[in-house]
């Protein structure tokens, strides 16, 4: 009975670790506000990220769609930045009660003739 209980506790501990959110990479690493095409696709990489939910409260930024790929370590986030201004956008990833907030830079776009 003790062995069964030990195995159960270890299994629950492993599942809890897997539920934690750990973003290792986001591509592109930053973007520009005010682009003619306001759609942005982010590729997010991290262990088990495909089961995470994502949201943002950044003014003018809307998450249009989240695509979960066959790999559990990738997530695609489609956004519309039509009304977003330059600044630091906070992206909130949650998975199983765990949360990670990632800062994502929206840079000011240089207009022609301003270089």
Write a concise synopsis of the structure shown.
The chain is an alpha+beta fold and 115 residues long. The protein is built from 1 helix and 8 strands.
User: How many helices in DSSP terms?
Assistant: 1
Tell me, rounded to a whole number, the average pLDDT: 86
Between the first and last Cα atoms, what is the distance in angstroms?
73 Å
Number of beta strands: 8
Helix fraction?
A: 10-25%
Order of helices and strands: HEEEEEEEE
- Fraction in beta strands: 35-45%
Give Rg in angstroms.
18 Å
The neighbouring-strand order within the major sheet is 1-3-6-5
The shape, in one word, is elongated
Structure in words:
The chain has 115 residues and is of the alpha+beta class. The protein is built from one helix and eight strands, in the order αββββββββ. The strands form two sheets. Strands 1-3-6-5 form a four-stranded antiparallel sheet, with no helix packed on it. A four-stranded mixed sheet has the order 2-8-7-4, with no helix packed on it. β7 and β8 form a beta hairpin.
Which key phrases capture this entry?
115 residues, alpha+beta, four-stranded antiparallel β-sheet, four-stranded mixed β-sheet, 16% helix, elongated
């Amino acid at each position: 009975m003790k062995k069964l209980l030990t195995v159960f506790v270890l299994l629950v501990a492993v599942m809890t670790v897997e539920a934690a959110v750990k973003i290792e990479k986001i591509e592109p690493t930053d973007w520009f506000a005010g682009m003619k095409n306001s759609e942005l696709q982010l590729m997010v990489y991290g262990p088990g990220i495909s089961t995470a939910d994502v949201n943002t409260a950044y003014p003018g930024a809307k998450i249009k769609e989240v695509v979960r790929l066959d790999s559990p370590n990738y997530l695609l986030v489609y956004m519309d930045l039509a009304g977003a201004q330059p600044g630091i956008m906070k992206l909130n990833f949650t998975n199983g009660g765990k949360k990670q907030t990632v800062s994502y830079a929206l840079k000011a776009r240089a207009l022609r003739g301003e270089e």
